[in-house]
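Why predict the complex rather than its parts? Because the way molecules touch one another can change local conformation, and only a joint prediction can capture that. The input here totals 283 residues.
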Amino acid sequence: MFLPARGCNLRTTLESGQTFRWRPWGPEGFAGILGTTVLHLAQQGSQIAVSGSEAPARLEPLITRYLQLEDGLARAWASTDVDPIIHAALQQTQGLRLIRQEPWECLASFICATFNNITRVEGMIDRLCRAYGRAVPYRGTIWFTFPEAATLARADARALRRLGFGYRAPYLVRAARQVAAGDVDLAAVVRMGYVEARETLLRVEGVGEKVVECVLLFGFAHYEAFPVDVWIGRVMRRAYFRGRRMTDRRIRAFARRHFGPACGLAQQALFHAARTSPELFAP
DNA sequence: CGCCAGGTGCTGA
DNA sequence: TCAGCACATGGC
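Output of the joint prediction:
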């Protein structure tokens, strides 16, 4: 089956640090699992070739939503194009889309991603799924679902330590318990606006000022979120503050004013541009 | 080997 | 509100 890519570039989007479970599959393809559905996606020009463990009629809405293929966000992206710096980043990251992820997987993944590098996060999450997810056989390979919060709530932090989670192990287990117990109700957060959702998610163990913005952006489609990690901090200080010291909070406040209500899109373009062309943003 | 990574929570000013 | 610190681990 084929879907119109509508300008989406798979590689740019799936290797942009928003998500950690896709693997290269052939020349222009990626394999992964959403929920219990195994997917093989391949870029073929203006189309995306799709196959997977469900009937095509079920794959289409799944992928359309995940990749936001009908997002109609062209105007939102354009609204962030307010100066030559972001303009260059946007040019360089054409085809980048904001993925719409499942909230719990997104939340748990970014707790794992704190003070960590993306390659290692991928390995950690892979081991987590193998240990606690459900097996889904497909075409001779056994895939694993992302573990439910209720499952991880019963896990022992020491077991996660042995999987290489370091000091994040107890955070992840406590976060799972908060979510599984309904203390933090992710289904309710879906219906909340940015401010209330932010306050609610900040109550989760291991979720601070940066992780919460990632989760709001990638898991709840709140495009006014603006995560400031070490990459974005560097880019912003260099490009907008003449290299001066600046707290993450002030960078975020500036970005919201400067780029407007879709500043999260600008953030993702800057993040990707900085990682793929560091020379443009060297300190 | 040393530096670094999509930081957080805590403490003391 | 902010700076400074400890925290585990492995990629490069």
